[in-house]
Amino acid sequence: MNVEKTSAIEHYVNEEPFDPRAIETMTPEQEKVFLASQKRLMWWKFKRHRVAVISGLFLAFIYLATLISEVIAPYSLETRNSKFIYAPPQGIHLFHEGEFIGPFVYGYKSKLDLDTLRRIYTEDTSDVQKLRFFCSGDAYRFWGFIKGDFHIMCPAEGGQVFLLGSDRLGRDVFSRMIYGARISLTIGLVGISISFVLGIVIGGLAGYYGGWVDLVAQRMIEVIQSLPAIPLWLALAAIMPVTWSPILVYFGITIILGLIDWTGLARAVRSKLLALREEDYILAARLMGAKPSRIIGNHLVPGFMSHLIASATITIPTMILGETALSFLGLGLRSPIVSWGVLLNEAQNINVVALYPWLILPVVPVILVILAFNFFGDGLRDAADPYG
Prior knowledge:
The chain is α+β, with helices and mostly antiparallel strands. The protein has 15 helices and five strands. Helix 5 (173-209) packs antiparallel against helix 6, helix 7 packs antiparallel against helix 8 and helix 12 packs antiparallel against helix 15 (363-383).
């Protein structure tokens, strides 16, 4: 067998000093990615998730709107109109008899059906009620402190506007939904704050120390997770005294939701810390005399903070649904506090829903907010791993 002899391949060593910023063989796009920070990479990947971006803008808009609920709502929270009980939604028109006159609604004529004892409303096309914008309307106290009467939209002088109908006391459902958003949305933020503190502290201690600390934490988490959520919520909510003020009930519901929903986050923190506690930089921190609280807070938790943020955006909807469920069943928030769950409480009777279906409209913002948080959380979760 003939074996060809090949000459040795010449080994070339470039003695030029290495310049990591050299771009002779790198396009501007590649250089931009190569030099980008972790946060910039996350932002670029998040922007590619169009649905998540739209959901984030929607959530930002609705949370900013809660800051000025009194200004956005056409009526104040206490306004009642006994002449228009269970009035159906009014449509906004622009043209009357072929003439453009701007946004307006037609007034209502009402009569009592003696057979069903139900009020029947019909549009009075001769009663044109032009809407007012950036106007003075019902008086209110901004965030309960500052007196004011400025509204973005007001009904015509001596008229009425019920964009989503009225309830059994003649109160505007649309205005009450706007006021209810402030409670329903903030209860998720306050609840997740409590859940975050418990999840990071308990999960961090279990993952860092291990041993009997981890064993006790895991058994406690398993016991809480084994309890059915709805009956547990009902039991804890029933404990609150009926003599408590609405504000105390609000904070009570928030604490209950936070005390229940921390277990999943604690396990996520524990698993991450079990993987990270053996890294070299953690050993270096120990050798330098850093305390466990400093190692967990300054070195371990920031390493996966992006994952915690993504988990928070997915947990907040659970808090909102929990408050809505408790209030719907009459064991959560109650009047005069207004939330989406309190509004849905009036729609418990199937006969009311059949006759006045607009009373279940507060479920629409609940669905939209839950979907937006889920899409937003998916986008953050994907962006948390920009190299994936």
